[in-house]
């Protein structure tokens, strides 16, 4: 039976959710598909190629239907939340997408949309590019942290309470600043942290826009 690339990719994502990235191998995927490894390598020359294809499949829902002509109706925060949710929808999705380093069409389309919004807001090119990377890194990092936490402790209230108690025991001796902020540290609410981080990113963008206007239009492209 001839192996279909889309079927192989679908199986890879299911296997990722089942065993995680560390245990996902080309040999295991071939076994799951009931084929020999060479049939899999015909479609994906290496595990890196497979992971890039998986990253594309993970991110694609975040930018589905994103029309550059309609970007003025899309808020940066909406794009950020969609990107985050796409990665969270798969086990180890943050690590898979981060490892692709933006080399997939969907990530490039998302980055282009974000960069366009930032340029249109009045940022100079260097500021806009840095702001885009800062936002993408923030989103990816927050997802990687959340998924690592949930794999270690779980995602329900009981497991989060156990993690909080472990943190409490760790920081109460020798870490005065952490101990002083213990109540806030023990609040394991990744949605709230993400929204707060987005707000901080927005404030940073506003300050950068002011600096761009103060420097004048010489290096703006729009």
Automatic annotation (TrEMBL):
InterPro entries: DNA-bd_HTH_TetR-type_CS, Homeodomain-like_sf, HTH-type_TetR-like_transc_reg, HTH_TetR, Repressor_TetR_C, Tet_transcr_reg_TetR, Tet_transcr_reg_TetR-rel_C_sf. One of its GO terms (biological process) is response to antibiotic. Keywords: DNA-binding, Repressor, Transcription, Transcription regulation. It holds the Pfam family TetR_C_1. SUPFAM superfamilies: Homeodomain-like, Tetracyclin repressor-like, C-terminal domain. Residues 25-44 bind DNA. GO terms for molecular function: DNA-binding transcription factor activity; transcription cis-regulatory region binding. Residues 2-62 form the HTH tetR-type domain. TetR is the repressor of the tetracycline resistance element; its N-terminal region forms a helix-turn-helix structure and binds DNA. Binding of tetracycline to TetR reduces the repressor affinity for the tetracycline resistance gene (tetA) promoter operator sites. This is TetR/AcrR family transcriptional regulator C-terminal domain-containing protein. The lineage of its organism: Bacteria, Pseudomonadati, Pseudomonadota, Betaproteobacteria, Burkholderiales.
